[in-house]
Amino acid sequence: GRITPDTLLLLDEIQEVKRGVTALKYFQELRPQQPVIAAGSLLGIAMHRDDSFPVGKVDFMTLYPMSLMEFMDAMGEQQLIRLLRSKNWEMIRTFAPRLETLLRQYFYVGGMPEVVSSFATNKDVRPVRELQQSILDSYDRDFSKHAPASEVPRIRMVWRSVSGQLAKENKKFIYGFLKEGARAKDFEVAIEWLRDAGLINKVHRTKKGLMPLSAYEDFAAFKVYMLDVGLLGAMSSIPATLLLQKNAILTDYKGAMTEQFVMQQLRLNKENKIYYWSQDNSQGELDFLVQQGEQIIPIEVKAEENLQSKSLRLFVQNNEGLHGMRFSMSEYKEQTWLTNYPLYAINVVV
After folding, report:
1. Is pLDDT at 251 greater than 60 in this prediction?
2. Are strands 217-226 and 36-38 parallel, antiparallel or unpaired?
3. Which letter does DSSP use for residue 4 in this model?
4. Residue 32 in 3-state DSSP?
Protein backbone atom coordinates (compact mmCIF):
# COMPACT_ATOMS: atom_id res chain seq x y z
CA GLY A 1 0.00 0.00 0.00
CA ARG A 2 0.90 3.61 -0.49
CA ILE A 3 2.24 5.64 2.46
CA THR A 4 0.05 8.70 3.08
CA PRO A 5 -0.09 11.30 5.91
CA ASP A 6 -2.69 9.00 7.49
CA THR A 7 -0.13 6.18 7.69
CA LEU A 8 1.65 5.77 11.01
CA LEU A 9 5.26 4.73 10.47
CA LEU A 10 6.65 2.63 13.31
CA LEU A 11 10.43 2.20 13.20
CA ASP A 12 11.30 -0.44 15.76
CA GLU A 13 14.79 -1.09 17.14
CA ILE A 14 15.94 2.07 15.37
CA GLN A 15 19.33 1.95 17.10
CA GLU A 16 20.23 -1.04 14.92
CA VAL A 17 20.28 1.17 11.81
CA LYS A 18 23.34 3.35 11.33
CA ARG A 19 22.30 7.01 11.61
CA GLY A 20 18.71 5.88 12.09
CA VAL A 21 18.07 8.36 14.89
CA THR A 22 19.63 11.17 12.84
CA ALA A 23 17.22 10.35 9.97
CA LEU A 24 14.27 11.37 12.14
CA LYS A 25 15.38 14.98 11.69
CA TYR A 26 14.68 14.73 7.94
CA PHE A 27 11.23 13.26 8.48
CA GLN A 28 10.41 16.35 10.52
CA GLU A 29 11.92 18.76 8.00
CA LEU A 30 10.84 17.15 4.72
CA ARG A 31 7.59 15.38 5.70
CA PRO A 32 6.36 17.15 8.86
CA GLN A 33 2.81 15.89 8.25
CA GLN A 34 3.94 12.24 8.43
CA PRO A 35 3.40 10.65 11.88
CA VAL A 36 6.46 8.63 12.87
CA ILE A 37 7.16 6.63 16.02
CA ALA A 38 10.65 5.25 16.60
CA ALA A 39 11.26 2.72 19.35
CA GLY A 40 14.45 1.19 20.62
CA SER A 41 16.59 0.32 23.55
CA LEU A 42 18.24 3.15 25.42
CA LEU A 43 21.31 0.99 25.33
CA GLY A 44 21.48 1.52 21.60
CA ILE A 45 20.11 5.03 21.23
CA ALA A 46 21.88 6.84 24.07
CA MET A 47 25.23 5.31 23.28
CA HIS A 48 25.11 5.28 19.47
CA ARG A 49 28.44 6.82 18.52
CA ASP A 50 27.62 7.72 14.91
CA ASP A 51 24.26 9.41 15.49
CA SER A 52 23.57 13.00 16.37
CA PHE A 53 20.38 13.56 18.30
CA PRO A 54 17.83 15.59 16.32
CA VAL A 55 17.41 18.15 19.08
CA GLY A 56 14.12 20.04 18.86
CA LYS A 57 12.87 17.82 16.03
CA VAL A 58 11.67 14.80 18.00
CA ASP A 59 9.61 14.34 21.15
CA PHE A 60 11.27 11.82 23.46
CA MET A 61 9.34 9.56 25.81
CA THR A 62 10.84 7.27 28.43
CA LEU A 63 8.88 4.07 28.85
CA TYR A 64 9.20 2.34 32.21
CA PRO A 65 8.17 -1.18 33.25
CA MET A 66 4.43 -1.47 33.85
CA SER A 67 3.12 -0.31 37.22
CA LEU A 68 1.22 -2.55 39.61
CA MET A 69 -1.98 -0.86 38.43
CA GLU A 70 -1.15 -1.56 34.78
CA PHE A 71 -0.39 -5.17 35.71
CA MET A 72 -3.80 -5.41 37.39
CA ASP A 73 -5.41 -3.96 34.26
CA ALA A 74 -3.69 -6.63 32.14
CA MET A 75 -5.04 -9.24 34.55
CA GLY A 76 -8.61 -8.00 33.95
CA GLU A 77 -9.03 -6.44 37.39
CA GLN A 78 -10.62 -3.15 36.30
CA GLN A 79 -13.13 -3.19 39.18
CA LEU A 80 -10.36 -3.45 41.76
CA ILE A 81 -8.51 -0.59 40.05
CA ARG A 82 -11.62 1.59 40.35
CA LEU A 83 -11.95 0.58 43.99
CA LEU A 84 -8.35 1.56 44.78
CA ARG A 85 -8.79 4.89 43.01
CA SER A 86 -11.88 5.59 45.16
CA LYS A 87 -9.70 5.30 48.31
CA ASN A 88 -12.67 3.77 50.09
CA TRP A 89 -10.48 2.03 52.64
CA GLU A 90 -13.31 0.14 54.34
CA MET A 91 -14.35 -1.46 51.06
CA ILE A 92 -10.71 -1.98 50.01
CA ARG A 93 -10.17 -3.95 53.23
CA THR A 94 -12.86 -6.39 52.10
CA PHE A 95 -10.89 -7.20 48.95
CA ALA A 96 -7.47 -7.23 50.65
CA PRO A 97 -6.82 -10.98 50.06
CA ARG A 98 -7.25 -10.62 46.29
CA LEU A 99 -5.19 -7.42 46.20
CA GLU A 100 -2.41 -9.09 48.19
CA THR A 101 -2.40 -12.02 45.75
CA LEU A 102 -2.03 -9.62 42.81
CA LEU A 103 0.78 -7.82 44.64
CA ARG A 104 2.62 -11.10 45.17
CA GLN A 105 2.16 -12.01 41.52
CA TYR A 106 3.57 -8.63 40.50
CA PHE A 107 6.60 -9.14 42.72
CA TYR A 108 7.32 -12.32 40.78
CA VAL A 109 6.26 -11.26 37.28
CA GLY A 110 7.32 -7.61 37.44
CA GLY A 111 6.39 -5.06 34.81
CA MET A 112 8.26 -6.02 31.64
CA PRO A 113 5.48 -6.05 29.00
CA GLU A 114 6.38 -9.37 27.35
CA VAL A 115 6.46 -11.12 30.73
CA VAL A 116 3.18 -9.53 31.87
CA SER A 117 1.51 -10.49 28.58
CA SER A 118 2.58 -14.12 28.97
CA PHE A 119 1.38 -14.36 32.57
CA ALA A 120 -1.91 -12.54 31.91
CA THR A 121 -2.65 -14.82 28.95
CA ASN A 122 -1.59 -18.16 30.41
CA LYS A 123 -1.82 -17.58 34.20
CA ASP A 124 1.25 -19.81 34.40
CA VAL A 125 4.37 -18.89 36.38
CA ARG A 126 6.61 -21.44 34.64
CA PRO A 127 7.49 -19.37 31.52
CA VAL A 128 8.01 -16.21 33.60
CA ARG A 129 11.58 -16.83 34.74
CA GLU A 130 12.58 -18.07 31.26
CA LEU A 131 11.35 -14.82 29.68
CA GLN A 132 13.01 -12.73 32.39
CA GLN A 133 16.28 -14.61 31.95
CA SER A 134 16.09 -14.02 28.22
CA ILE A 135 15.78 -10.26 28.88
CA LEU A 136 18.74 -10.36 31.28
CA ASP A 137 20.79 -12.25 28.69
CA SER A 138 19.97 -9.67 26.02
CA TYR A 139 21.12 -6.86 28.32
CA ASP A 140 24.35 -8.73 28.92
CA ARG A 141 24.93 -9.01 25.17
CA ASP A 142 24.23 -5.29 24.79
CA PHE A 143 27.04 -4.49 27.22
CA SER A 144 29.56 -5.90 24.77
CA LYS A 145 27.79 -4.40 21.78
CA HIS A 146 27.31 -0.81 22.92
CA ALA A 147 29.54 -0.05 25.92
CA PRO A 148 33.19 1.02 25.68
CA ALA A 149 35.21 -2.20 25.63
CA SER A 150 37.35 -1.08 28.56
CA GLU A 151 34.26 -0.59 30.74
CA VAL A 152 32.41 -3.85 29.96
CA PRO A 153 33.97 -5.93 32.80
CA ARG A 154 33.17 -3.22 35.35
CA ILE A 155 29.65 -2.74 33.99
CA ARG A 156 29.03 -6.47 34.44
CA MET A 157 30.41 -6.36 37.99
CA VAL A 158 28.11 -3.49 38.97
CA TRP A 159 25.09 -5.01 37.22
CA ARG A 160 25.51 -8.40 38.88
CA SER A 161 26.05 -6.84 42.31
CA VAL A 162 22.75 -4.94 42.49
CA SER A 163 20.71 -7.76 44.03
CA GLY A 164 23.40 -8.43 46.64
CA GLN A 165 23.77 -4.74 47.46
CA LEU A 166 20.02 -4.51 48.11
CA ALA A 167 20.01 -7.68 50.22
CA LYS A 168 22.44 -6.14 52.73
CA GLU A 169 21.11 -4.76 55.99
CA ASN A 170 22.51 -1.37 54.97
CA LYS A 171 21.48 -0.96 51.34
CA LYS A 172 23.90 1.89 50.62
CA PHE A 173 26.05 1.04 47.59
CA ILE A 174 29.43 -0.25 48.78
CA TYR A 175 32.27 -0.38 46.24
CA GLY A 176 34.12 -2.97 48.31
CA PHE A 177 31.19 -5.31 47.69
CA LEU A 178 32.28 -5.46 44.03
CA LYS A 179 35.83 -6.52 44.82
CA GLU A 180 38.32 -5.96 47.59
CA GLY A 181 39.92 -2.54 47.40
CA ALA A 182 37.48 -1.22 44.76
CA ARG A 183 37.28 2.57 44.66
CA ALA A 184 34.64 4.98 43.44
CA LYS A 185 36.74 6.38 40.60
CA ASP A 186 37.18 2.87 39.15
CA PHE A 187 33.45 2.28 38.81
CA GLU A 188 31.84 5.70 38.32
CA VAL A 189 31.73 5.37 34.52
CA ALA A 190 30.21 1.87 34.71
CA ILE A 191 27.49 3.01 37.11
CA GLU A 192 26.61 6.06 35.03
CA TRP A 193 26.56 3.97 31.84
CA LEU A 194 24.02 1.59 33.39
CA ARG A 195 21.96 4.51 34.65
CA ASP A 196 22.01 6.28 31.26
CA ALA A 197 20.94 3.01 29.67
CA GLY A 198 17.93 2.86 31.98
CA LEU A 199 18.96 -0.42 33.60
CA ILE A 200 19.61 0.87 37.10
CA ASN A 201 18.29 3.71 39.21
CA LYS A 202 20.42 5.68 41.66
CA VAL A 203 18.82 7.19 44.74
CA HIS A 204 21.11 9.66 46.51
CA ARG A 205 21.18 10.46 50.19
CA THR A 206 19.96 13.85 51.30
CA LYS A 207 21.23 15.22 54.58
CA LYS A 208 18.16 17.24 55.56
CA GLY A 209 14.42 17.21 55.07
CA LEU A 210 14.25 20.79 53.87
CA MET A 211 13.13 22.25 50.56
CA PRO A 212 14.66 21.75 48.06
CA LEU A 213 16.07 18.32 48.88
CA SER A 214 18.61 18.66 46.05
CA ALA A 215 20.39 21.40 48.00
CA TYR A 216 21.34 18.85 50.66
CA GLU A 217 22.20 15.98 48.31
CA ASP A 218 25.18 13.79 49.23
CA PHE A 219 26.64 12.63 45.90
CA ALA A 220 28.99 10.16 47.58
CA ALA A 221 26.21 8.14 49.24
CA PHE A 222 23.56 6.39 47.17
CA LYS A 223 21.52 3.23 46.74
CA VAL A 224 21.18 1.39 43.44
CA TYR A 225 18.00 -0.33 42.26
CA MET A 226 17.22 -2.36 39.16
CA LEU A 227 14.69 -1.21 36.59
CA ASP A 228 12.21 -3.97 37.45
CA VAL A 229 11.30 -6.04 40.51
CA GLY A 230 10.66 -9.16 38.42
CA LEU A 231 14.12 -8.96 36.88
CA LEU A 232 15.60 -8.47 40.36
CA GLY A 233 13.90 -11.68 41.47
CA ALA A 234 15.14 -13.51 38.37
CA MET A 235 18.70 -12.30 38.88
CA SER A 236 18.51 -13.40 42.53
CA SER A 237 16.98 -16.79 41.59
CA ILE A 238 14.13 -16.31 44.05
CA PRO A 239 11.66 -19.20 43.52
CA ALA A 240 7.98 -18.62 42.81
CA THR A 241 6.88 -20.33 46.01
CA LEU A 242 8.71 -17.82 48.20
CA LEU A 243 6.98 -14.86 46.56
CA LEU A 244 3.54 -16.27 45.84
CA GLN A 245 2.68 -17.99 49.12
CA LYS A 246 1.04 -15.96 51.87
CA ASN A 247 3.26 -14.87 54.75
CA ALA A 248 6.41 -15.67 52.80
CA ILE A 249 6.33 -12.48 50.79
CA LEU A 250 9.89 -11.28 51.21
CA THR A 251 11.15 -11.99 54.69
CA ASP A 252 14.01 -14.14 53.40
CA TYR A 253 15.22 -11.29 51.23
CA LYS A 254 15.20 -8.66 53.99
CA GLY A 255 12.81 -6.33 52.28
CA ALA A 256 15.06 -5.81 49.24
CA MET A 257 12.29 -6.57 46.79
CA THR A 258 9.74 -4.52 48.70
CA GLU A 259 12.01 -1.50 48.60
CA GLN A 260 12.71 -2.13 44.89
CA PHE A 261 8.95 -2.32 44.29
CA VAL A 262 8.26 0.97 46.07
CA MET A 263 11.08 2.84 44.31
CA GLN A 264 9.87 1.48 40.95
CA GLN A 265 6.34 2.79 41.56
CA LEU A 266 7.54 6.16 42.92
CA ARG A 267 9.54 6.96 39.81
CA LEU A 268 6.49 6.51 37.56
CA ASN A 269 5.25 9.87 38.85
CA LYS A 270 7.50 12.39 37.10
CA GLU A 271 6.75 14.93 39.83
CA ASN A 272 8.55 12.79 42.42
CA LYS A 273 12.15 13.71 43.21
CA ILE A 274 13.39 10.65 45.08
CA TYR A 275 16.09 10.55 47.78
CA TYR A 276 16.75 8.70 50.99
CA TRP A 277 17.82 10.15 54.32
CA SER A 278 20.23 8.95 56.97
CA GLN A 279 22.00 10.56 59.88
CA ASP A 280 25.74 11.07 59.66
CA ASN A 281 26.22 8.53 62.47
CA SER A 282 23.94 6.04 60.65
CA GLN A 283 21.76 5.64 63.72
CA GLY A 284 18.62 6.52 61.77
CA GLU A 285 17.66 5.97 58.17
CA LEU A 286 14.57 6.67 56.11
CA ASP A 287 13.99 4.44 53.07
CA PHE A 288 12.78 7.29 50.86
CA LEU A 289 12.36 11.03 51.11
CA VAL A 290 10.31 12.36 48.22
CA GLN A 291 9.85 15.93 47.07
CA GLN A 292 6.54 16.22 45.22
CA GLY A 293 5.94 19.77 44.07
CA GLU A 294 6.10 21.88 47.21
CA GLN A 295 5.56 18.90 49.50
CA ILE A 296 8.16 16.69 51.22
CA ILE A 297 7.02 13.14 51.99
CA PRO A 298 9.02 10.90 54.36
CA ILE A 299 8.41 7.24 53.40
CA GLU A 300 9.16 4.02 55.23
CA VAL A 301 8.84 0.58 53.65
CA LYS A 302 8.02 -2.61 55.54
CA ALA A 303 8.08 -6.08 54.01
CA GLU A 304 6.19 -7.55 56.95
CA GLU A 305 3.61 -6.47 59.50
CA ASN A 306 6.21 -5.45 62.06
CA LEU A 307 5.33 -1.76 62.13
CA GLN A 308 7.91 -0.24 64.46
CA SER A 309 8.95 3.01 62.79
CA LYS A 310 11.61 4.59 64.99
CA SER A 311 13.48 6.36 62.21
CA LEU A 312 10.31 7.70 60.62
CA ARG A 313 9.00 8.96 63.98
CA LEU A 314 12.34 10.63 64.74
CA PHE A 315 12.43 12.28 61.33
CA VAL A 316 8.86 13.63 61.56
CA GLN A 317 9.48 14.90 65.11
CA ASN A 318 12.59 16.76 63.97
CA ASN A 319 10.99 18.24 60.85
CA GLU A 320 7.91 20.16 61.86
CA GLY A 321 4.97 20.11 59.48
CA LEU A 322 5.81 16.80 57.77
CA HIS A 323 3.51 13.77 57.80
CA GLY A 324 4.99 10.31 57.29
CA MET A 325 3.88 7.54 54.93
CA ARG A 326 4.49 3.88 55.66
CA PHE A 327 3.87 1.16 53.10
CA SER A 328 3.45 -2.32 54.54
CA MET A 329 1.39 -5.51 54.41
CA SER A 330 -1.01 -4.00 56.95
CA GLU A 331 -4.26 -2.23 56.13
CA TYR A 332 -4.88 1.51 55.95
CA LYS A 333 -4.45 3.28 59.27
CA GLU A 334 -4.31 7.02 59.96
CA GLN A 335 -2.23 8.28 62.89
CA THR A 336 -1.33 11.78 63.98
CA TRP A 337 2.21 11.65 62.56
CA LEU A 338 1.93 9.04 59.81
CA THR A 339 -0.49 7.14 57.60
CA ASN A 340 0.01 3.43 56.95
CA TYR A 341 -0.98 2.33 53.46
CA PRO A 342 -1.08 -1.22 52.13
CA LEU A 343 1.67 -1.77 49.55
CA TYR A 344 -0.87 -2.50 46.81
CA ALA A 345 -2.30 1.03 47.12
CA ILE A 346 0.94 2.87 46.29
CA ASN A 347 -0.06 3.89 42.75
CA VAL A 348 -3.03 5.89 44.02
CA VAL A 349 -1.46 7.69 46.98
CA VAL A 350 1.98 8.98 45.93
Report:
1. no
2. unpaired
3. -
4. coil
